[in-house]
DNA sequence: CTTTCTAGTTTGTCCTAGACAAACTAGGCA
DNA sequence: TGCCTAGTTTGTCTAGGACAAACTAGAAAG
């Protein structure tokens, strides 16, 4: 395996498409159709890897694999929005403030971005900062990534810097451990944590005691942590990147492990489409999260 | 699938053992031997899942699967160090300072832990704080997790809180962008970032410009980020949890994507056993990291 | 007695090819 | 227009075979 050839594990790593799926596509659609080494094992040329990356990106936007694989390279390129268009049409906030911030990331100016964000945090206070700056900014970055005007590594840089800001801000919020106690985490395969940090900040500001456990907790550990910390609520976040098929199974299983006295709240783009039930509550927005907290307090009086 | 039965995907999620491995063990060793649903699909009872968790933990300590699977439950329990023993023998630092900090985590006293750590940071300064407190503490927690005296969720809590402290501390370090420029990240499947944060802090303190990209970057994105940021060095971290088999392949591949002018440095427990070559430099400790930085500066004069 | 090398064993990952169910689409009907 | 049903798409599971990398143990040499 050299720079021009990738084995199936490398393709899985680079694209996020599972080995099973790669083999199935080959069987069904005839693409990707990799070379083979002396041992009969797949060796994907770089060109196929590039096409797979593009297909994956378009799938994450809601396109269906069958269509995409059948399409020619030109047709695919057409489906992927052009960078230039995006820049002109997408920044619609009145002040152009978000555009400025995005531009800083785009220029890879980490210190500048951090400073600009700090300024806004100081000026607006935590809650407005989160709701008016961080949340929409995250959405813009998500869109920008989807349509290719942001590189993956630019999105990573944005996420990392923003995580730091939020955590730093949360650390300075008034402590004082009060109720309810809320365990915040994500399930395995879900590594996006920005949304969780936003609600953590808002909850903490409202006087809840937040127990942040980072990402990717096995379900049993989530349950044990909730019991050990005498939590009232377990809050999970799902991004759109999380495989949809798995969500309902995961929730069902976690609900069965968790004592009935502990509420289960879920949020994030990946949770949209599900609806609040006896088993769990869906938080559709940051406002909804705050509303849910208020409601919980009312009910627990 | 209910609370007492887990499908193969759930077992993979909970234990970290791949589906391929689970099926192979069943074929070879006759364990785990799950029930089947009406469709012939595996349904693992909770007892087998528990045994698998234990086996996985012992494997991570260096035991071999063949022996472990052949062993009886009693023998396994014997291999796993007892909690009580550990507590008595392990805290050997002169002051008992680390023991105090560990105890705070063990009591799930997040605010107390944060405060105690802040205090030490303020008292000792960043460098000593990292080298004398954070690094050994992390090691202790790793050991404690290995031998079962720490729950997984306790380790998560420790990691999350410590990450926050380090990031916060890094943010307050004097900025000033100087050379070299160092991109810090991990490859896919490697989510441990604590070691990376420690070196980031030390490097930043020495006046390097650090570009933190978080975890789990596809190799191509690491390479593109390094080029885009005009980095001099790419620093990766590997934990012991990272599958050993994959490391050399990953490094070889990344090295081929990366311009030769950009150095590749790797560190972490998972990197031990590899040795510095033309392709990359191995950082064996935090001291070694600082030494390597000094050396780099000398050579680039 | 220790070290190094070789031969054997263990272990994970790859392979093919078949089956089924959940998710989605499209057509017909109210 | 909205809803329901039938059909299609898609991913994940199944079995068992093969091979190479990693590790172990025994023999030979210092």
Question: What does the model show?
Answer:
By secondary structure, chain A is α/β, with parallel strands linked by helices. The first copy, chain A, is 57% helix and 10% strand. Chain A contains 14 helices and eight strands. Chain A has helices at 8-15, 19-29, 46-60, 65-70, 73-79, 83-89, 97-106, 110-124, 126-146, 152-172, 194-205, 219-228, 244-257, 286-299, and strands at 5-6, 35-36, 42-45, 181-185, 209-212, 233-237, 263-267, 281-283. A five-stranded parallel β-sheet of chain A has the order 5-4-6-7-8, sandwiched between helices. In chain A, a hairpin with a 5-residue loop joins β2 (35-36) and β3. The relative contact order of chain A is 0.07. Mean pLDDT of chain A is 89; it is low at 83-91. Chains A and B meet through α1, α8, α10, α12 and α13 of A and α1, α8, α10, α12 and α13 of B. Chain A binds a DNA duplex (30 and 30 nucleotides) through residues 7-9, 18-21, 23-24, 27-28, 39-42, 64-66, 243-245.
Short description:
Two copies of one chain form a homodimer. Chain A has helices at residues 8-15, 19-29, 46-60, 65-70, 73-79, 83-89, 97-106, 110-124, 126-146, 152-172, 194-205, 219-228, 244-257, 286-299, and strands at residues 5-6, 35-36, 42-45, 181-185, 209-212, 233-237, 263-267, 281-283.
């Amino acid at each position: 395996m050299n720079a021009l050839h990738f084995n199936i594990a490398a393709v899985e790593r680079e694209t996020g498409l599972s080995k099973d799926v790669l083999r199935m596509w080959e069987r069904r659609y005839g693409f990707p159709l990799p070379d083979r080494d002396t041992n009969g094992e797949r060796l994907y040329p770089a060109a196929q890897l590039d096409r797979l990356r593009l297909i994956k990106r378009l799938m994450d936007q809601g396109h269906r694999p069958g269509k995409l694989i059948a399409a020619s390279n030109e047709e695919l390129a057409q489906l992927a929005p052009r960078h230039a268009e995006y820049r002109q049409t997408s920044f619609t906030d009145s002040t152009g403030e978000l555009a400025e911030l995005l531009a800083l990331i785009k220029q890879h100016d980490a210190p500048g971005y951090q400073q600009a964000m700090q300024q806004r945090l100081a000026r607006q206070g935590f809650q407005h900062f989160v709701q008016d700056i961080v949340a929409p900014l995250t959405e813009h970055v998500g869109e920008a990534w989807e349509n290719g005007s942001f590189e993956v590594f630019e999105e990573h840089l944005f996420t990392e810097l923003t995580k730091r800001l939020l955590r730093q801000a949360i650390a300075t919020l008034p402590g004082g451990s009060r109720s309810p106690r809320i365990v915040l985490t994500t399930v395995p395969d879900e590594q996006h944590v920005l949304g969780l940090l936003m609600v953590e900040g808002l909850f903490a500001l409202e006087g809840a005691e937040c127990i942040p456990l980072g990402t990717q907790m096995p379900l049993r550990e989530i349950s044990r942590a909730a019991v050990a910390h005498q939590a009232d609520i377990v809050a999970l976040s799902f991004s759109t990147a999380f495989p949809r098929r798995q969500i309902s199974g995961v929730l069902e299983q976690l609900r069965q492990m968790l004592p009935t006295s502990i509420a289960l709240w879920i949020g994030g783009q990946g949770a949209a489409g599900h609806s609040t039930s006896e088993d769990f509550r869906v938080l559709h927005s940051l406002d909804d999260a705050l509303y849910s907290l208020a409601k919980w307090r009312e009910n627990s009086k």
